[in-house]
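Notes to self after the call with IL:
- keep both proteins in one doc
- input above output, always
- annotate only the second one for now

Protein 1:
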Amino acid sequence: MQWYATYMNLISGRQRGWWPTVARSGLWLLSGVYCLGAAVKNFLYDRGWLRSHRVSVPVISIGNLTTGGTGKSPLVHWFVNEFQRREVRVGVVSRGYGDHTNAGNDEAAELHQRFPSVTHIQNRDRVAACRQAVERGAVQIIVADDGFQHRRLYRNLDLVVIDATQPWGYGACLPRGLMRESIRGLRRADLALISRAELVSPDQLQQTRASIRRIAPQLAIVTATTEPQGWINGDGHRLAIEGLSGRRVLAFAGIGNPQAFCKLLQNLGIDTSEFCAFPDHHAYSQSDWEKLQKMAIANQANALVCTRKDLVKLTEFNSGDLPIWALDIGVKIVNGLEEIHQAMDRVLEKLRA
């Protein structure tokens, strides 16, 4: 937890002084190597010297330009729900970051809770994962979670999610920033979706749209907000969104953008003066859990709050005297819903053909 906070303070520029300046200079050199590698790979695919592999059903990729934390998971759930509403058998494939048990990571556990009948395959080889999904679940369409840079898999629709609160990953590729590739990668996309629009000002939102337009003038831009739907605990019991108003809580999260979650809680009137940020896909230990309990008691909190991705990894621990609630969130398309539906229709036409 400490190293993660130090790293984020370093690359964000919040940490000042001579040694952070030297460290950032070193990270710039490593970022150059990383960016060059990404550019070479994309060049080889663009020229056809590396080949994308088709599978027997249409594929929709939901990805991003930065590492983690853009709000892809709620959007994956939105697409799964939309296809189920249209009575299309949908499957999900993903890489499985943070899976230390070979039983599926936190995203797999959350998806299973929400959609127990949906086939979900996690495999570093997304082509193999798609083929397994078709064979195992007889799926008719596949949603590839975090697939934008996995160009070996051919996709029928490429949607890139851009987090309004941190759209360009501190302006640099890994490890100096959070970008996986240059912003010019947007030119490969079919749709750009700006997530968490409610957490920034209209001017910031317009600046992000303008940046997209400069790089990809013809790219359709969709805007979405996070939609809190209430609180849920490990037993599946639910609490209205107002249920924790006025109560002192300890908030924590092990996701790609914990600060966005913190800001969302603040918008709900939750006191986040005590907030613990863990690395993305953090595997909680008994020690972590005991520290959180002690912090909560020391701060006179009467509950702990987190994300559903965190909650599914805490079921093995005794909750003690303090209840733990996860914020159940969805996504609301506030601008560009017609563009998404038209894109889905085009993909489904390929399925019918």
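Protein 2 (the one to annotate):
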Amino acid sequence: AFLPWAGTLYPAPNGYIDDALFIGEPDWDSYGGERLRLGYQFEYLINDNWSIRHNLRHDDLEGHLASMYANFWEVDAAGNGYVDATGTPATNGEYLNRTWYITRTDSKVLNTDLLLEGKLNAGTVEHTLLLGIDAMRFEDNQRTADGAATPLNVFDPVYGGFPKPSVALGAGTPLETDQTGFMLQDQARFDDRWIVVAGLRRDHVTVGIEGAANDDIDDTVTTRRLGLVYLAGNGWAPYLSYSESFETISGFDSNGNLFEPKQGEQVEAGVKWSPDNGAITATAAVYSLKETNRPVFDIDDPDPTDAFSQIQAGEVEVDGIELDVSADLQSWSLLASYTYTDAKIVKGDPGDPSVGKQLSSIPERSASLWAVHTFSNHSLQAGGGVRYVGETRDGTDLIRTPANTVFDAMIAYDLGTWRYALNVNNLFDEEYIAICLTRGDCWFGTRREIVASANYHF
């Protein structure tokens, strides 16, 4: 639910909102749809060194959504903006005004690719070549409607006072996206120590409104990839890589313009270590990436009633460190990870308060630890872990959401072809706030989740 700062991160005039609050109307709030998927996978071995693969998949989707969200933009951090039962601002009010919205989505996606793979030797150098073409066609039409609903007492909710509106959705704005890509890659290994991967990709994409005379977006981009690994012995393998990306985004920003394709480039250096027995694997990596046209929440949305509005950032720069260790030590399996992420918008519109600030909802630090013990009969396993997500910010560094730590647990039992398991996420049912944004809203984190499963292995 989109809930205001006051009542979640900060106290409202009447305290804090229960994180179990349902902001919609149970009688008609719904989300669902249907998907029809058809496709095939084909592979032919030409000889011992060459093979060809062809894949095709078609998806036809129909989705529907009817719900509400609280008008969080009417409430400030002090709680001014809470209303009475009629929706009128009131001192120490207990109600929030709501907006209803209905969405119908019709989408069709066709993906296909043709890949030729071959292995050949040139002297002492072993080559694995990959040559391919892929294509995608995406047709998408979202029809929406929204309007004012009755206020809800968020401290003592009573439902049923607002009937489902009768709405005739319009024709919408059907979008068509076509993308074709050609790629060539060579993985070369020489002297039994060096591995080099080099690749080129050429993409052409058009995005436009169905039936329009011209495409609004018509781009052709070449992206490159280069990687180098040195097999140093004793399980050590330092590496260096450079890669570029190109990704189409379907939809409109908060100003009604089609999203431009997202582009990026990344440099990464690291080292992997795994001794000959493979019982331990450790990786350390540092990276720096830049992206243009990354969608972000629009904090200056010309229509504040649209909680889903986004704009595209001028340029985003992300620098990070990643550490991972996994180990299988007799009856114990261990996993540990740590990440540091410095993610900022470095170029944007003049006066944009988000420029130079940490991207919203991305923590600088996060870590996890997981351990599983296999008992002597090899049938029973039990384990537990902890996940830490550091402080997150709102995109302008004005609002900071505290860090959270949750614990997980599992137990499993194998009986030959059957495996029974019980997994519990957020074991101690910790209540926490996951994200708060500059535009005025916060979201609660997921409470305890228990999943029981039975699997049969053929």
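Annotation: The radius of gyration is 26 Å. The longest strand covers residues 125-153.
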